[in-house]
Design brief:
By secondary structure, the chain is of the alpha/beta class. It contains 15 helices and eight strands. Helix 6 crosses helix 9. It is globular and about 55 Å long. It starts with a helix and ends in a 5-residue tail after the last helix.
Length: about 400
């Protein structure tokens, strides 16, 4: 439940309000040669968020999780937390988000750790250069953090940078990383197929949830929506069951998969959702095409788009080879030998299996901050957890 509900408000780490953070949004054109249809013209530039201090300070890059943008809720919390701790912060969308695929992914097919890392590293270089030119702040050192898929990306970016020697990251923090990416997305895909009695399609599921909410508000006597609404519902007779929570999480990730599949196909002119000769004008509604993409989950994207493209350059190799190359296991020696890298995760994280959890513990040792509960990122704003990983980023006691 922590994956959905998060930390109760009174237990969260205190952060400043958004209006108190000195911040702005900037953009860079990473791939000037990319030709996008008029309907997607807003994605020709990669947009990102910068929070900065007037005095010299370390800068931390934040990489969002699966399908998330730089302005997502979890990135906003981390931005405020790290800014409050005295760091400049640059927040980037996930390479699996539509804006990054269109504006900064060379292949237009995210999902390979090393390739995504090269795209991210280029975007980071351009983003910090533009930010310093526009805002005039001074950077004393660099740090890097990512959540979920963004954590896997952070690991690959750190390994790449250790060979390039550009940022020389002092600290790298992996927040709820997948270990075996393709196995993790398979678990997320499975959630959307959870069976609930009386629910036989998505419309019925949303109607089922709506009816529960309606009964809850009717019993309460008002329809005020507060931040504590979810916790309130879960302590009422209308509490969502484990199966309903699983299906809710699966539905959210299905939309992310559709977004990824649609934009990748469009950038590569695959014609799966939009006919190759169809001109997408500014006035063109994308809804019919996105609706078709909803039938393709993460596994479908991997099998139909990513794997065939990868095998063109890796003849004779299998999907198991591709999966290993983009897993944290392929970076095990690097992760084990670099004491500037730590990870945060939970025993009940839905994207991990027992072997994955053991891999983090044995590879990182005392730099694996492992908790018995918290789900997938549900405790990142829990004050004691935030204090622990913040201390690591600041170079304090681990």
């Amino acid at each position: 439940m922590a994956t959905v509900a998060g930390t109760p408000e009174k237990l969260r780490a205190p952060v400043p309000s958004d209006v108190d953070v000195q911040q702005t949004d900037l953009k860079v054109r990473v791939l000037p040669e990319r030709n996008l249809p008029p309907a997607l013209s807003e994605y020709r530039d990669l947009h990102y968020r910068v929070a900065w201090h007037d005095e010299a300070a370390p800068l931390i890059f934040l990489v969002a999780g699966t399908g998330s943008g730089y302005d997502s809720t979890r990135m906003d919390f981390l931005k405020r937390l790290f800014w409050q701790a005295g760091m400049h912060v640059i927040v980037l969308s996930s390479p699996s988000n539509h804006d990054f695929i269109a504006a900064a992914s060379r292949s237009g097919l995210p999902g390979m750790g090393a390739d995504d890392a090269r795209d991210l590293h280029t975007a980071m270089s351009m983003a910090v250069e533009k930010a310093q030119q526009k805002l005039g702040f001074e950077v004393t050192s660099y740090r890097l953090a990512g959540f979920s898929l963004g954590a896997l990306h952070a690991a690959f970016v750190a390994e790449l940078d250790s060979r390039l020697g550009q940022f020389d990251f002092e600290r790298v923090l992996l927040l709820n990383p997948p270990v075996d990416l393709y196995a993790s997305v398979g678990r997320l895909d499975a959630l959307s197929y959870t069976k609930i009695q009386g629910v036989d399609d998505n419309d019925s599921f949303y109607e089922h949830i709506f009816q529960k909410l309606s009964r809850h508000f009717a019993n309460r006597g008002n329809s005020d929506i507060q931040e504590s609404l979810f916790a309130e519902i879960q302590s009422s007779p209308e509490a969502l069951t484990d199966a309903e929570l699983a299906m809710l999480i699966g539905a959210v990730f299905r939309f992310s998969a559709a977004d990824l599949s649609f934009m990748s196909d469009l950038v590569n002119h695959g014609g799966r959702y939009v006919p190759a000769d169809q001109q997408l004008r500014v006035s063109t509604s994308l809804t019919p095409y996105l609706r078709r993409a909803l039938f393709c989950d993460f596994t479908c994207y991997i099998n139909d788009q990513l794997l065939p493209a990868w095998q063109l350059e890796n003849a004779g190799k299998t999907i198991e080879d591709m999966a290993w190359e983009t897993s944290l296991r392929s970076l095990q020696d690097y992760l084990r030998d670099n004491r500037n890298i730590a990870a945060v995760s939970n025993a009940d994280d839905l994207i991990l299996a027992e072997d994955d959890y053991r891999f983090l513990a044995t590879t990182l040792g005392e730099r694996a901050f492992l908790y018995p509960s918290g789900g997938h990122g549900g405790n990142l704003d829990y004050a004691p957890v935030a204090e622990r990983y913040l201390a690591f980023l600041q170079g304090g006691a681990q």
